[in-house]
# Entry
Amino acid sequence: MLSDLNLPTSMPVYDRDSWWREWRQTALPVAVTLALLALGLANVVSRATSDEVEDGVLWVERAVGVVAAEISAPSAASRAGIKPGDRVVTRGAYDVQLASAATGLPAEGHVH
# Structure
């Protein structure tokens, strides 16, 4: 009569290694996801509390001084006419002058 029920004759035995394999398959993706979420949250907090001024220019220090390496298109720097290669020639308490990369002469305006 029991043979007609098609029940397994022995119950599967979970040893410690198989339990660990199953747990690891679940825990590893969850741990990676939590770590990435934590890094994303740290990035948001860092950007929200940063007091750096973003002017749209990647400034690099070269032998000739501080030079504009890259300019973001929709930025205050592009609207002011700063071009890649422009360099800072003077820096006072309230006034910064830029020299044009093409002419070496001061750029059209002053950046205050």
User: Anything to note?
Assistant: The chain has two domains: 14-49, 57-99. The chain is about 35% helix and 20% strand.
